[in-house]
């Protein structure tokens, strides 16, 4: 099931339109290519409708939002909705400023999202309509652990019901759910939080996976989350063995994604259903 | 002849003003430095004339164009023309949206370009005034091969005559021509299309090579194209030997450029005249 | 003393708000994480006050300034001043255009800076109110050497008195001074000028070091400068041993920062008081 998702990406080479932040955009583009999709970044309001029309999915990331690009996000999202394309939201820093919280909420009102991926603080902000986030990282008070896992799974399913989107909460433990079914994923490594952009890159990968598997958004998203985590584990092993640091880790996580195949993925996944 | 071009870059350290996209800008800056030039990125309309005035070449890349930066591109291009500096155009995604096609055409009308470099779909769009491009990659129907090579060589020469610019069409096979003479270049490796920015980086390198060799634009451009392809070949060999992936490939292609010299280049070039 | 500065960064994980350029922003974010701080990039005028309010320091870098972001820089800087947070200025390219020179001067008028870090040409421009800079690199006529070092130390102290900020002039030799005391630092390697962003990354590291050591800005800044230079030396040794190039150097400089500790730092520092 999961391996098939990845094979579809490599077969269809989905084109992913990303309106994203300028901090991690290069990593997102390289990761998109590494995972078998092809990225196109375009944010001028006069071209986003045309660009999204030649694509298989749209990724909206509010990491360095501004007035000009917010308008483009909404325009592109509505066009993608008309075309029936999956739209993925990464509400970076929702809860850290009123502008980010309001923009995330407005996007959810104006655009129908196929998937929303964020850390626990960002996703709670979306649920509650307000929040506090330590910058772009999750608040440690919110962290998932084995003690509150069942509760978070129920929360994720309820939020999926409320929004109509697959919800992916990522952190030390990941939960990916629609209103009926949840996957709990334990791939990944703490070093992923010592480089910028692992969240943004993952959201871009989700875009490619959903673009190639539009009829199976939940499993596509869970596969992407697990695959990214697995690449993080493999990258850490290599960095550790070679006594390297975080920039090498960044290189290797993309390297492993570019060499991933269905067999390696299925062997490495740490995923269960709830 | 070719080695001399490279030596001039290392001797003169030309300063290259780039108005470029935010996806690959960091790679372009590092590649500019690696090839012996020095980059400066500046896109505010209130400074582009002054900035270009201290430079040896101007590179205009429309990869993430917007209304604000389009105006700056034209202003900078016209100033560079007044100063007699070579201006290089990378019409990223021309054909993928009306905005990109129209902007490329307007730039060609308002600014005299020394070199235009793109993939075959982008260059055909410029010739025809309209086109269809699969995002920022060439349409596979357009691909160069040994069967249509003569025809493309003739097309390239005619377009050079029409525009007054050296035309560089890059892909599996590269054609670089002015109205009289063409170079066909077979350096490069398919992995170059699995990372973002090889096209943008090449255009920046062309900027440096033309900035240091303003009286020999055709040979400077062909040398840059061949040199970039050679770095791709060397990078692939290393990635393959070490069982690495696409992000390591990106690192090595810049590494090899930073260590290139005239002898290595002339030994590795796969270039012929048509 | 110096080791304690670094330990505070690792203990407090200061959050650094950066309004910076899109060329090196990814490197700045990764370097911020590597040195133990956490970055957040936000430049919309409607959120900068809120964002800076959750941070420990603000870094302002004018490398790709435009009208929109200049207004955000001033707004964020004034808010940080109200909150008593250290604000660090990187006047990239001051002297290369009137816009850059004027913006640097206006920022110095409107915002009280804790630290200003630039190359010698940029810092002289700030002192004189005008200047000539070869793009974003220092003019070679201005270079520090053992012959003019005493004179530059005196100049640095005077400029600190005039501006109220710690002044860090970086190049082959670095001088960091407040009005009473100067550190002369001889860490670093010439290869640092063959990649983009070493200056920007250093300024971001200074932000983290000052954010975690707000009562010791002079020593925090000198420690950051020395630490960055030491990482450059270590990265060069590795690149040289492995016959690699400038992109590997970029990777390793961040790697070494991510593995730095107080003992390694104190052993490697080449610093003296003047």
From TrEMBL, chains A, B, C:
It catalyses: 5-(2-hydroxyethyl)-4-methylthiazole + ATP = 4-methyl-5-(2-phosphooxyethyl)-thiazole + ADP + H(+). Gene3D superfamilies: 3.40.1190.20. Its EC number is 2.7.1.50. Substrate binds at residues 41, 197. Pathway: Cofactor biosynthesis; thiamine diphosphate biosynthesis; 4-methyl-5-(2-phosphoethyl)-thiazole from 5-(2-hydroxyethyl)-4-methylthiazole: step 1/1. CDD domains: THZ_kinase. It comes from the Bacteria. One of its GO terms (molecular function) is hydroxyethylthiazole kinase activity. Pfam families: HK (PF02110). It is an enzyme of class 2 (transferase). Keywords: ATP-binding, Kinase, Magnesium, Metal-binding, Nucleotide-binding, Thiamine biosynthesis, Transferase. Its cofactor is Mg(2+). ATP binds at residues 117, 170. Belongs to the Thz kinase family. Catalyzes the phosphorylation of the hydroxyl group of 4-methyl-5-beta-hydroxyethylthiazole (THZ). This is Hydroxyethylthiazole kinase.
């Amino acid at each position: 099931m999961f391996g098939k998702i990845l094979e579809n990406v490599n077969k269809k080479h989905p084109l992913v339109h990303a309106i994203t932040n300028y901090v991690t955009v290069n990593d997102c583009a390289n990761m998109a290519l590494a995972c078998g999709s092809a990225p196109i970044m375009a944010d001028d309001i006069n071209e986003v409708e045309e660009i999204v029309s030649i694509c298989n999915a749209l990724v909206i990331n509010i990491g360095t939002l501004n007035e000009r690009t917010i308008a483009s996000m909404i325009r592109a999202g509505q066009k993608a909705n008309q075309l029936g394309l999956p739209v993925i939201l990464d509400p970076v820093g929702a809860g850290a400023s009123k502008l980010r919280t309001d923009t995330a909420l407005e996007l959810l009102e104006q655009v129908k999202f196929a998937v929303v991926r964020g850390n626990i603080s960002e996703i709670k902000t979306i649920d509650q309509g307000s929040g506090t986030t330590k910058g772009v990282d999750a608040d440690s008070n919110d962290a998932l652990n084995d003690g509150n896992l069942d509760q978070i799974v129920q929360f994720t399913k309820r939020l999926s019901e409320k929004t109509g989107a697959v919800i992916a909460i990522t952190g030390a433990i990941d939960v990916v759910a629609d209103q009926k079914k949840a996957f709990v994923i334990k791939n990944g490594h703490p070093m992923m939080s010592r480089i910028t952009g692992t969240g943004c890159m993952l959201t871009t990968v989700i875009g490619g996976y959903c673009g190639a598997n539009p009829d199976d958004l939940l499993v596509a998203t869970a596969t992407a989350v697990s695959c990214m985590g697995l690449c993080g584990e493999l990258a850490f092993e290599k960095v550790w063995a070679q006594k390297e640091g975080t920039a090498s880790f960044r290189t290797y996580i993309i390297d492993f994604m570019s060499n991933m195949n269905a067999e390696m993925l299925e062997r490495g996944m740490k995923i269960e259903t709830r």
